[in-house]
Amino acid sequence: MGRNRFICHTELPYHITARCINRDWFSIEQEQVWRVMTTHLLFIHLAFGIRIHAFVLMSNHFHMIATAPNGNLSEAMRFFMSESGRDLRNFSDRINVTYGSRFHRSLLSNQLYYQHAYKYLYRNPVEAGLCERVEEYRYSTIRSLLGLEKMDVPVSDDTHWETWKSRLTTLEWLNTKPGQEDWEKIQKGLRRSVFRISPYKSRPSHLENDAL
User: Fold this and answer.
1) Rounded mean pLDDT of 72-96?
2) SS3 category, 193
3) Distance between CA atoms of 8 and 86, rounded to whole angstroms?
4) What share of the chain is helix, strand, coil (3-state, %, to 5)?
5) According to the model, what pLDDT value does residue 164 have?
């Protein structure tokens, strides 16, 4: 049976992830992987109109939240993975493909789901033991949002980062460790093509009534 035709939502964001083949690492220094990724993120923003809300590079995979106003998410991601994969192979001694499979997407159909995915994305390095606070991780767009580092990735502004007070509030929320059960529910929800978890045990209460 053929794959169901994907109809891209043009207003709602998606959580997107892809992993290196065989769950291996990318075979070159992470700093170089980061430069490759950010170069091609900039290109899909300019060429395809993709709005990038958040991006985190891990040792063998990446997480991204993005919106495709032109309905061309599949085309943009095919280009991104093809070109970044080719560059990563050129910089390493890898002779086979870079990614283990096509990217996975999960539609974030409301504000609360967006917030759960947003926190999950930025806390990935913390939960992996790579840093103690989200803003310490080098390969994350959060450092650009905080003004800690200049990046070429054009991150779409989120209203909660507009003032220093809102930055501190959002950072406090991101750096608050979720319960293990809640974390596992979010992981499971993001495996779906449309993100869904129920029931909620914890809510990002300080953000709940605001639009991200």
Assistant:
1) 83
2) coil
3) 26
4) 40, 15, 45
5) 58
Assigned token pair, 175: 């750096």
Of residues 106, 122, 121, the one with CA closest to residue 16: 106
Average pLDDT over residues 84-112: 79
Domains of the chain with bracketed CATH: 14-190 (3.30.70.1290)
Q: Mean pLDDT across the stretch 26-47?
A: 89
More confident residue, 62 or 7: 62
pTM of the model: 0.85
Name residue, tokens 């999950």: 120
Section 35-60 average pLDDT: 94
Do 57 and 139 touch, CB atoms closer than 8 A?
yes
| Beta pairing partners, 14 | 66, 107
pLDDT bracket for residue 176 (50, 70, 90): very high
Contact 16, 105 (CB under 8 A): yes
Residues 6+ apart with CB under 8 A from 59: 25, 26, 30
Give the separation between CA 52 and CA 192, rounded to whole angstroms: 21
Buried b (16+ CB within 10 A) or exposed e, 150-163: ebebbbeebebbee
Helices (H) and strands (E) in the chain, counts: 6, 4
